[in-house]
Request: fold
Amino acid sequence: MSPDEFHQLARFLKRRAGIMLGDGKRALAASKLNPVVARFGFKTIGDLIHELGSPGDALARDVIDALTTNETFFFRDKAVFDYFRCQIFPPLLHARLAQRRVRIWCAAASTGQEPYSVAMIVDEFRPLLKGWTIEIVATDIAANAIARARNGMYGAGEVERGLPREMLIKHFRRDGEGWRLDPSLRRRVTFARRNLIEPFHDLGIFDVIFCRNLLIFFDTATKQNVLGRLQASLADDGHLILGSAETLMGFGAALEPASIARGIYAKARYVQRRLAAG
Reply:
């Protein structure tokens, strides 16, 4: 892949997914695209790049799938999930007693470990949830990641990474060389392909939004745009959970840290009201 072809590829990825592809990623991008080149019958990566077409085009989707990062594991950043279990979900149930409905969105859900981790925590509260609707919506730009997530099948290395042994025994069954998540838990998560640089207001308002380790791939303008729309999709007393390396510093005061655990934010009015209440 020549420098010009790489820059053309980088412009494509920025335009279609908002993701920045730095100059140092040329060799990595080439290695990720080689299977796509073979699958579509191109002779070179350059031939593939010159054929990239419309957003709905299968080739464009496969290139985006290949170049997006799907690094994830169960209960990644344990402090975040402990905070959700103890400090977010129980008060949320109390606040939603009248509606008996809670909505949680895992954006950039990759192969499903994050939303399924959330579903396992929700399952711990099952005796209290009779008559409740707990919606867990999980989205990702990569169609192949979403397909894997829906399937709920994970290798031995994946279930050994972050997943407590008792959760494995309770929620998974051996299936050949891997482990398959129980259908009852899989049904609690609704998966869909979504691109966050495109409108997502139709998904509605959420009480908790996980959007972790994605904003670091955006430039400042794209990050500002996505954060503004995430905030608009968040309930007034809801929480936005980012990656531990991500910060809202420099992006206005509409959201404030809600915990000493890094990456957990809430609307400023809610944080101030909670501090005043002690």
